[in-house]
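Intended use. Records such as the 3-hydroxyacyl-CoA dehydrogenase C-terminal domain-containing protein entry shown here are meant for training and evaluating sequence-to-structure methods. They are not intended to support clinical decisions.
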Amino acid sequence: MHARLAPATSLSPADWPLCPMPDPDAARAYLGATQSGCPPASLPASAAIAGGSPLALGFAAGLALSGAAVVLIEDDTHDARRAQDMLTRAGALKGITITTDPTLANDAPLILAPPPQLASIARHAAPDALLITFCDGMATAATLPPDCVQIFTATPPPQLGVVEVLADPLCPSEALHRTQALLRALGGQPVPVPFFLGPRLIARLEDMAEALVFDGATPWEVDTAMTARGFALGPCAAQDQRGLDLTYARHRAEDRAGEPRNVPLIARMVPEGRLGRHGGVGWYRYPGGGGRVIDPLIEDLAREEAHFARHPLREIGPEEIIQRCLLALLDEAALLLHEGAAAATIDLICCHATGFPVDEGGPLFAAKRAGFAQVLRQFAALTPPMQPSGALLELATQAG
């Protein structure tokens, strides 16, 4: 059974100024201003999709359900068997052919693939095929064709929600419009972005959750506090859904870029086979591929790593968990705003990518209502304190 903490009902706007009395109507009107008016399109008769990620499998299932003949192309027979098992368990294999042969793309009018595989599959597509690549937000060494459209979403079909859409300046407008129409036809809400926002916000929340576990909390304490606060899913459970191997790859990329981390949990978990739900174990265990259950061994792993690092453990209550997670999201949102993204777009993406309560409009909207000066005092009031970024300090100064 999944243990739960008592909801953090003691919180009030005085305790935590980023949660003033919500105004759902104002929040939803503010977030709705970013919606695109692109009409939905008729779905293609066939499609070729590469990779066995949850996103690729979700799009394959969604397109097959609409009647498209889908070819799912995997790197090797092991990955092909794993994809077949996952789709079979989900009852979504009908209409999908799984292969390791990219030539079976067979003049497909639609290609969806991660950046490394896109070029090898696109050469077998129809001349006017729509090329869409799934992105995880990390920089890619792959060279993408200019007519390719990049997308990111935290929720694959059939729960497709907000989808970030990013196109090369040389990308034909027709390709961009076709992509947006396709996403709408699959139930998504395409949002054009100047650069990907969701991966940055997710990464900031994931890293804060990992730090809290390293400091002494458990994954289920972090998740219970955040769902009690109104998040759709706790950050550790959500990370398990996406796959801890994605976080591991991001951390390795950050190490190579000269941004070493001082929290070693993911660095140990993934090499030991804790890949998340698709591997059967991550922050939680998923016996038989079913729902998550608490895994006491993760507590032992975290305590052991803290001991090795001579890192002191402490009691962390739900109020502190909530404060640190929300402040981390607000700080990253301020950085994205400073780099040129629109506030309403950032908040919309944050709500859908991290589960921030939609009725509160996102971290920037909520902080503006609460007052930035009051929110900044929360950074210093924590023990140990959090240091706001220069972007957030500048935003607070501009807000008065």
